[in-house]
């Protein structure tokens, strides 16, 4: 099952060498990747050297990097042993998870969401924490930047629960517009008005279920994708409810949707407080909820950071750039205010 490991102390040059031996040659081929491409990716990410001989390999480099590389390789091998695939994204995830766990194989490696079209595993320690929270709490807030998988993983959990018969319905909702959801001013019928705002939720569903299944369940009302305004006055029982882009709700809207939660239901609220589109002076319902509900039993708050971004690497660099610019703007604004106050 797991690799056999030997360890050599640091040599005079300050590097550490660790050896791994895997017992299933057919899995080793998949682990190493075509032309050892997976190993090359780990080398590049961690600045280590990996040498192979048959089903054995040695990892050479700084001690921390070697531990992370070996933990990642062991978790990837365990994944293959469970019959799951390993590609470039899984290699990146294994490295990210090992970094987050200080070079130890994460419990998150055991978490797999099985849907009709794909198997989904956490790709960061925070994602693993998030999935565990959804299992353990009736209301979960997933907070953080774009690209961290907040909505995608929540939809995956909703689909899994429906497939297992644990809920009767999936309800996916977003604020249709930045403020007030004034749908009447948009052209077309109701569906044409709201679909552009809900498209990311449809995309996630189609990534996990065949198109005909999605269409059938939408028609029967077992899956509902609707703007937030349509939740008013309802009690959402036996359902998995997801509110996406919650930073663009008002405090009144947020209280409304949270109090819709009925018997045998779960709710996940996702949002990014750095991307609030509400008009100036209107307080975000997500921020209001965080301050109001902190410490209440049965609610979990999971905070994602830029290190959890699992989209294209360029997304993480852009998040960094925007954060730096925003920090400079805030600093300049404070400086201007302080000078104005002194002048007064």
Highlighted features:
alpha/beta, 17% strand, 344 residues, 12 strands, 11 helices
Q: Tell me about the biggest sheet?
A: 6 strands, parallel
List the uncertain runs.
183-187
Alpha carbon gap, first and last residue: 73 Å
What's the overall geometry?
flat
Task: Give the structural class.
Answer: alpha/beta
Describe this structure in words.
With 344 residues, this protein is of the alpha/beta class. 44% of the residues lie in helices and 17% in strands. Helix 1 (25-32) packs across helix 3 (63-81). The longest helix is centred in the C-terminal third of the chain and has 31 residues, at 313-343. It starts with a strand and ends with a helix.
What does this entry show, briefly?
This protein has 344 residues and is of the alpha/beta class. Helices cover 44% and strands 17% of the residues.
How would you summarize the topology of this molecule?
Layout: E1 4-8, E2 16-21, H1 25-32, H2 37-46, E3 49-53, E4 56-61, H3 63-81, H4 88-100, E5 113-114, E6 119-120, H5 125-136, E7 139-143, H6 150-163, E8 169-174, H7 190-208, H8 211-220, E9 223-227, E10 239-243, H9 251-258, E11 266-271, H10 285-293, E12 299-303, H11 313-343
Parallel strand pairs: 7-11, 7-12, 8-9, 8-10, 10-11
Antiparallel strand pairs: 1-2, 2-4, 3-4, 5-6
Helix pairs in contact: 1-3, 2-4, 3-4, 5-6, 6-7, 9-10
